[in-house]
Amino acid sequence: AAQMRVSRAVERLRRALMRRGIAVSAAALAATLGSDAVVSAPAGLAASAASSALATAASGSGTTVTLIKLMTMTKLKAGIVSAVVAAGLTTSFVVQHSSLTSQREENNALREQTEQLDQQLDQVRADNLRLAKIQLDANELDQLRKEHLETRGFREKPLPPFGKSVLMPAPFQS
Predict the structure, then answer these.
(1) Highest mean pLDDT among 33-37, 43-47, 67-71, 115-119
(2) What is the mean pLDDT of residues 1-7?
(3) H or E segment to which residue 50 belongs
(4) Distance between CA atoms of 60 and 15, rounded to whole angstroms?
(5) By three-state DSSP, how is residue 90 classified?
(6) CA 13 – CA 7 distance, rounded (Å)
(7) Fewer CB under 10 Å: which end of the chain, C or N?
(8) DSSP per position, 110-134
(9) What are the percentages of helix, strand and coil residues in the chain, rounded to 5?
(10) What are phi and psi of 119, to 5 degrees?
């Protein structure tokens, strides 16, 4: 991850230099920056820092105790804050997990319900086809009965109150 950030930063620097009219490759830029990246501190700086730290420690032991107490309290506060953050993250993960679990269960129940409704729909369609065939057969049977009766010399006379027909002989024709 750090290498990707460095390569992106080098590329941004190369583009910024290109806008100013300086043409340089990313590899050359990285090599130039890498050669000057490690510069040692002057030798005298380390010695003067060590001597001033020792002088301060010898002269101000009261401030050292205060400083240690402050550092301890800061570490304690950091520990408490990190524990609170960890508890918050854990709680959010638990809530999210339970929410996902309940949604999965609901999805499964809806899938089962859909499958049952599909099966019922298939059954209704099959029944509809069967009833349509029966209706066609009944219509064809009625038509055949009428034709048969007409060929034998009978005709139908409907009865108004019940809607059924009565067979009456056709008038005699000579």
Answers:
(1) 115-119
(2) 82
(3) helix 43-59
(4) 53
(5) helix
(6) 10
(7) C
(8) HHHHHHHHHHHHHHHHHHHHHHHHH
(9) 80, 5, 15
(10) -65, -40
Interatomic CA distance for residues 136 and 134, integer angstroms: 5
Residue partners of 53: CB distance under 8 A and separation at least 6? none
Look up residue 76 and give its amino acid: L
Backbone angles phi, psi at 167, to 5 degrees: -85, 125
Residue 113 to residue 122: CA distance in whole angstroms: 14
Structure tokens at 143: 């038509």
Cα three-residue angle 82-86-90, rounded to 5 degrees: 175
- What pLDDT digit, counting tens, does each position of 39-97 carry? 566 666 666 666 666 665 555 555 666 666 767 777 777 778 788 888 888 888 888 99
Token output for 97: 């997990």
Determine the residue type at 102: S
Do the strands 154-158 and 165-169 form a parallel or antiparallel pair, or are they unpaired?
Answer: antiparallel
